[in-house]
Amino acid sequence: MNTPKQSTYKAHRVFCLTVLLLAMSLPFPVFALDLQEAKSQLLVGESVTGYVGIVKDAAGVAALVNDINAKRKASYASIAKRNQTSLNAVERLAAKKAIEKTAVGQMVQLAPGGAWVKK
């Protein structure tokens, strides 16, 4: 007969093993996808809009792109306000710099809505 302590331990162990097995069944990119990794895997690229775009959809990519772009937009808006210029002007300048800094072999979009090409 199991004591209450043994039953709790067994239930805890089963729970931990279940969580571990579920985690192992998830696609790898869900765990640690960051911008540089996504760029290296050609999942995302820099666009002429000043934002990151999805090149190839995979688990976690849309969430990553939405997060990065929301942060960029907030930053661009702050810069525009501080410099008394338009958001569009800041986005264009940021896009130019981001595309210039993109590593050879990574993806860029050189026209709004255009095709993704390797730099």
Q: Extract low-pLDDT stretches.
A: none
How many beta-strand segments?
4
Distance between the termini: 68 Å
Q: Looking at the structure, what is the overall shape? A: elongated
The DSSP helix count reads 5
Sheet of most strands? 4 strands, mixed
Secondary-structure element sequence? HHHEEHHEE
Count of the domains: 2
Strand content: 5-15%
Structural class: alpha+beta
Radius of gyration: 22 Å
Structural commentary:
It is built from five helices and four strands. It is α+β, with helices and mostly antiparallel strands and 119 residues long. It folds into two domains: 1-28; 33-118, no CATH class. The chain has a four-stranded mixed sheet. The mean pLDDT is 85.
Helices and strands in order, then pairings?
Layout: H1 4-25, H2 29-32, H3 35-40, E1 44-47, E2 52-54, H4 61-82, H5 87-101, E3 107-109, E4 116-118
Parallel strand pairs: 1-3
Antiparallel strand pairs: 1-2, 3-4
Helix pairs in contact: 4-5
Kindly summarize this structure in a few lines.
This protein is of the alpha+beta class. Helices cover 58% and strands 11% of the residues.
Supply the key terms.
single chain, about 120 residues, alpha+beta, 4-stranded mixed sheet, 4 strands
